[in-house]
Amino acid sequence: MPHSEEALRVIPLPAHVRRDSMVGAEVTLPHAMRHLDPESLSDKDRKTLRDGLFDNGVVVIRNQQGLDPALMPRLAQLFDATAGHIHSGGDKVVTDKRNILAQNNGSRVPRAPQVTVIGKGKWLGYEGIPELDMKHVSQTTFHANPLSKNDLDAGFTRPYRWHMDAPLYERLPGFVTSLHSIKNPTLPDQKLHFPSGEVLDIPAGGTAFYSGARAFQLLSDDEKEFALNTTVQYAPRAYEWILNCKATDDGLTIASSGAEKSFDDLPGWTWDKVHAFPMVWRNAGNGEPHLQVLGCCVYALHTKDPVTGKVTVMSDLEEVRKTCHKLTSKVYKPQTLYVHRWQEGDLVIFHNRGVVHSITGELTKPSTDDDPEKRLLWQCSMLSGTFPEAYRP
Ligand SMILES: [Fe+2]
Fold first, then answer.
1. What is the mean pLDDT of residues 363-370?
2. Where is the TauD/TfdA-like domain (predicted)?
3. Which segments of the chain does DSSP mark as H helices, in order?
4. Cα of 331 to ligand 1 centre, how many Å?
5. What is the tally of structural domains in the chain?
6. Which protein residues have a CB closer than 5 Å to ligand 1 (ion)?
7. Considering the domain boundaries, does residue 277 fall inside one?
8. CATH code at position 159
9. What's residue 6's pLDDT?
């Protein structure tokens, strides 16, 4: 066996798939390794995988059917020595109905309680879970101007909500999220329509990503200066706060204001546990700047004058949302998006502090036994002990 096949390799996806996104690579495991096993990798292989993830944002390992779900929580340590032992969403994030993240009706894998089950359709006895009846969330329920019946009949979809996997309260977001595909829809491609008039074919139920590094590069010099000096204050209990809000067509922010819950109606919270993060994060691998904003959850922007040190606070919610949208929408173009075309068995690891992602796809028909929309994935994002580091030029 040639030596090169004994080592783990990270190979960027073909240029026609990556296009101008800076996202996507395939990992081939060392020859004797059937399932990714981080503890059995050599130091050199661990470094190759780590660097490959930080440089490419999203990496995929194919044919991981039969993977032990307990691997997924352990994986976080490879990229973050301060990763904790609980899911960054805590114990109840997918089952607490006060929370917009519970709308999928997902569950947790009983033998690996840090692993969330997400998807669409009915499953009886899956992994010992008596009954799963999962609903695929889509723009039909979350967008201010949902697609018309004609658009839906023509196969259009939209990004649901662009985000990082970040609770924005108490627990710090993980460096990585892992996703493992168990079952994919067997449907024709769907389509995204962009403000430019362009149309992009995407796989039904594909997970969309953009690189925060590419998003930063696309800013003007003045916008870069603003972003580098700005801290994003997120709302208290942001996912409860926006429960009744509606998104812009691209899913990058909330379309208007006024539908937020009153702070008094949110589950108990204190300001010291609500997160405020830099707008531009430093990549823990290659040191590059990444524009990392959860535009649906923003509350205020605090911008420091680099000369005088004076801080200006933007607190008008519509202005805050419009400002974030202006910055993040520059990357919302067909050539700078990567939409993962799931194959069953894929293990995808993504740099949660370096890319922004969204669910896509219209999988909204009533569930049946032979439902072509049926979809099931495992998801794991472990909390970190490290605060996101601001990029300093
Ligand atoms: Fe997510």
1. 85
2. 37-380
3. 15-18, 43-56, 71-79, 139-142, 149-153, 212-217, 221-228, 238-241, 317-328
4. 18
5. 2
6. 165
7. yes
8. 3.60.130
9. 87
